[in-house]
Each structure stands twice: as C-alpha cells, then as structure tokens.
Amino acid sequence: MTIITVFRSRLRGGVEREYQPLAGVMSVVASSMEGFIDQKHYVAPDGERVTVVRFMDFESQRRWAKHPDHLEAQQRGRDEFYSWYDISVSEESYSHTFDNSQI
C-alpha cells in the first residue's frame, strides 16, 4: 500500500535563498529513508509550491515525518519560511503507469 504525502505551501517574501539549501537537504534525507519511492516538486506561476512524496507504507512515511532532521526543518519552516502550508497524507487506492518513452 503506497502512502502519498502532498505538501502545498507558500513562502514568505525574501526567504527563497535561505530556503533552497534546507529544502535540498530534506529531499536527500527523504530519498535515503527505507521505503521511499519518489518525490516531485512543482512551483505554480502564482507562487504556490507542491511537493508529492511517495513511500511504500505508512510506517515508512511516519519514520520520515518524525525524523529528527525533518522535525527541525519543520520548525524552521513555521518560524522562518512559510506563510502558509497544507499537508495531506493518503493511501493510494489505484495506480497505473504508461511509459512510451523508449520507442
């Protein structure tokens, strides 16, 4: 059962330069966690950011959520970087992949 975390956020003005290195480190830490599948990051033209992270199971996702470095980054996010965020964690009920890129 794949667990999907969707993290939507908006940064405060003027924090991008300080935010990027921390976001990069958190991506590396997440990708090193047991059960990690993949992650994608998007920034909309209006400034909203979306990160989608997939883990193999709920236990793997919870280990990431409670990782000490991640907890510290979450606090910094609230204190320094985010003007708003929303987190949704869901169990994937269906998945299908089509890949025609090798033809």
Describe this structure as you would to a colleague:
This protein is of the alpha+beta class and 103 residues long. The chain has a single domain, classed as Alpha-Beta Plaits. It contains three helices and four strands, in the order βαββααβ.
Summarize the structure.
The chain is of the alpha+beta class.
Poorly predicted segments: none
Radius of gyration: 15 Å
The major pleated sheet works out as: 4 strands, antiparallel
Arithmetic mean pLDDT: 96
Do you know the CATH architecture?
2-Layer Sandwich
The assigned structural class equals: alpha+beta
User: What's the number of domains?
Assistant: 1
Number of strands: 4
> What general outline do the C-alpha atoms trace?
globular
Order of helices and strands: EHEEHHE
Q: What helical percentage do the residues reach? A: 25-40%
Number of contiguous helices: 3
Terminal CA distance reads 30 Å
Write the layout of secondary structure elements.
Layout: E1 3-11, H1 16-32, E2 36-43, E3 49-55, H2 58-65, H3 68-81, E4 82-91
Antiparallel strand pairs: 1-3, 1-4, 2-3
